[in-house]
Amino acid sequence: MKSTSLLVLVFSALLVAGCSFGPRTPAPTSKPTVPMFIHVPSPTIPTGAPTRTVASPTRESTQVLTGTLTVDTSTPTPTATPTPIPTTVSQLPDPSGYSWQLVVSGLERPEGLVNARDSSGRLFIVEQGGLIRILENGALLPAPFLDLTGKVVCCGERGLLGLAFHPRYTQNGYFYVDYTEEVNNQLATVIARYSVSPNDPNQADPGSEMRLLHIDQPFQNHNGGELQFGPDGYLYIGMGDGGSAGDPLGNGQSLQTLLGKILRIDVDSAEPYAIPPDNPFSGGEGMWEIWIYGLRNPWRFSFDRLTADLYIGDVGQDAWEEVDFLPADTLGGQNLGWNYFEGSHPYRGSPPTGVEIVQPVAEYGHDLGNSITGGYVYRGKDLDDWQGVYLYGDYGSGRVWGLLHLFDDSWQNALMFETDANISSFGVDEDWEVYLVDYGGNILLLR
């Protein structure tokens, strides 16, 4: 087991100003249609000096399918109503009585941990090379749940990067993956749906793939990878800015590309998906799938089970790592600032007059780490002192912080733990106990 030492001396609070949010574009009255399978080509990579001007990509079908994709006007399936949750604490806990305890080791480049909300108690572990493994009763099952090693290109920031189970998984058997593929030297992010085998709950059907999105990537890094079903029942997808350094193609601020965004789609009302009617740019001002923009690489994000607030860990460039926060009543369309800002600090150029930027609620410099990994708000049953604390970490330094949204709308932030893990992700089980995923092959549980 990797040793875990506690930082009990660092316990000072960091108060950060609140966020401002821009106006939302009203939902369209008509229903736009697009091809059933969406292929989004990457912008042309310039050979000279980087430019912020990006031509609007066109949607073109790469596969013959029938039907149309429509803006949904029905109500999506919400996630299940949670059981009562203890009240959020009023201050960060003293971490000296807690540690990250080893649950399992021997994994190969794990990058995610997800539960299916099916009351089975199983945990599904994403390995970057293309396997989804099952952890049941503290032991890894010998056969993978799904093997995508023949499809996935790995490694670096590429690979099998994300997994989410449909809120009605116990009824429909659907789950969704985010992976990188390479065809004819062109890298792309694939968002696809798979189904569990009807004969074995520990086996997925490898032939059941239905592709939702195929998004070309101009470089090898900043692929995003997070998939989360929101409290509204929609699927949220994290997309990085396409890579290189400094966002040379201006993707973060362009509404004509899906790169550098968090997307929001309805997977229930049409196949492969529909556009939620209240998506901020579904009226034509930008690509319909966009929920928020101005992100560099939102590697991991999650919703608070109690409040439905959204927490985002956005990986920085040269100097700053940031946590972004959008309250549950956010209407979408917010600009999180990249590449005008890295964290709260000016990076390149200035936003146009009238453009509102949502500033981070917490950040740290590269003296403390160099690659943020967003986590979860603790809502488990066992650790009352941690109720409402958002746990996040750093891949490079192994540090873990606690962030608490106080009742007066201020924030308290403190370094909680120092570990020797390469923190690639966090996860929660069905009881919302928080796990740490170590890229070196280990899963640990906060106790």
Gross geometry? globular
What is the name of the CATH architecture? 6 Propeller
The helix content is: under 10%
How many domains make up the coordinates? 1
Q: Tally of extended strands?
A: 29
Count of alpha and pi helical runs: 1
Name the strands of the widest sheet in spatial order.
1-26-25-24-23
Protein described:
By secondary structure, this protein is an all-beta fold. It has one domain (4-446): TolB, C-terminal domain (Neuraminidase, 6 Propeller). The protein is built from 1 helix and 29 strands. It has one helix at 169-172, and strands at 4-6, 38-40, 100-104, 110-114, 123-127, 131-136, 139-140, 146-147, 160-165, 174-183, 186-196, 204-217, 227-229, 235-239, 261-265, 290-293, 300-303, 310-314, 320-326, 341-342, 345-346, 362-365, 372-377, 389-394, 399-405, 411-419, 423-428, 434-438, 442-446. A 5-stranded antiparallel beta sheet has the order 1-26-25-24-23, with no helix packed on it. The two termini are 15 Å apart. The relative contact order is 0.18.
